[in-house]
Design goal:
With 142 residues, the protein is mostly beta strands. It has a single domain, classed as Lipocalin, CATH 2.40.128.280. It has two helices and nine strands; from the N terminus they run αβββαββββββ. The chain has an eight-stranded antiparallel barrel with strand order 1-2-3-4-5-7-8-9.
Length: 142
């Protein structure tokens, strides 16, 4: 499927995430309760923000909380942004900013299709022992 920029533009709300590897027995992404927003802008930039629904507050606010509280919060949230590039069969997200600093400067490949009005992005199994192949379903907002 050839994807056009006008098909992607706008804001998308995350509906669900499916794991693609049936042998993946790890915990579901974002505790099985993912929420998120994805923005594709006309200037060729994108932003993705995902988190686990129902995240607990950190006691004491921004200046409080234990290391355990902050670790729990960090593991239930991710965000990244940068320019995107549309290829014939996929999109490349060129990561400039990321909640996970190791991925700054890398490219995220996303295979794209549209299914019943939803944007479906599939992630390949990226290098690294802790990577997971996923299918993310997004519904246009607004």
């Amino acid at each position: 499927m050839i994807v056009r920029q006008e098909d992607l533009l706008g804001s998308w709300s995350l509906i669900r995430i499916e794991l693609l590897d049936p042998a993946d027995t790890g915990p579901p992404p974002f505790g099985g309760q993912p929420e998120g927003v994805l923005h594709y802008l006309p200037d060729g930039r994108m932003v993705a923000i995902l988190h686990q629904a129902g995240r607990s507050d950190i006691p004491g606010g921004r200046k409080g909380g234990s290391d355990k509280d902050w670790k729990r919060a960090a593991r239930s949230f991710t965000a990244y942004a940068g320019p995107y590039e549309i290829k014939p069969d996929h999109i490349v997200h060129h990561v400039e900013f990321n909640a996970f600093p190791n991925d700054v400067g890398t490219d995220y490949i996303r295979y794209v299709r549209f299914d019943d009005g939803m944007l479906v992005l599939e992630t390949p199994l990226d290098p690294g022992e802790d990577q997971r192949a996923m299918r993310l379903f997004w519904k246009r907002m607004g």
